[in-house]
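Hi U.,

Before I forget, here's the chain from the pilot set. I'm dumping it here mostly so it's searchable later in email.
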Amino acid sequence: MGSTTLFDGLSGYLAKPIGKGPWPVLIVIQEWWGLDQQTKSIADRFADLDYLTFSPDLYHGELAQLGDSEKAMSLVQKYGQTASEELQRIFDALKIHADSTGKLGSVGFCFGGRMSLILGINRPVDAVCTFYGGGMQQIFDQLDRLHCPVLGLFGDQDISIPVGTVEQFDQRLDQIGVEHEIVVYPNSGHAFFRDSDPKAYKPEASKDAWQRVTKFFDRHLHRKYVLK
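Structure:
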């Protein structure tokens, strides 16, 4: 289990592996609901795989209840402009953390999926994963500044991110020559990975996505570091 801590003045949830570091680092970025128990549980799962994991509280203690989209949207509008700068500060602090190998990846969900890509655009992240990154089409014109491998995981019934948008994302990454894997899960909508929401959760898609994301980070953070 992790604990609340501060990095460069920003509070968040830090989950450390058992034993002694250093370890590769993962920044786990919240959905638009905020830094809730779901996000913390994902951070714990990655820590169990020997990642020093930090989930920043980009809403500074505020939360929207699951399903309260109006509140969630107001929080995105309130904090969305500062989130990118804060993630960059977190990256800089974790990159030189005493328990860090220097290898650092990011993974985000929904709002966090877009922010994970934005972090990769603005900082030399070693690997970026986006789970159904909401509004990611807003940054397609910036993707040429992305220079790390990308894993994108989406659902074919996600109204907010139509399959056509995912195809454009895939094509754009092809054009700029970024190593990437894009997966669109059948019969799955937005937030299919969120096991705390029975309406959205898709067990088969979630299981496959977890296998893919763990292999992805193992290849680019763990194995790359030890030169396997």
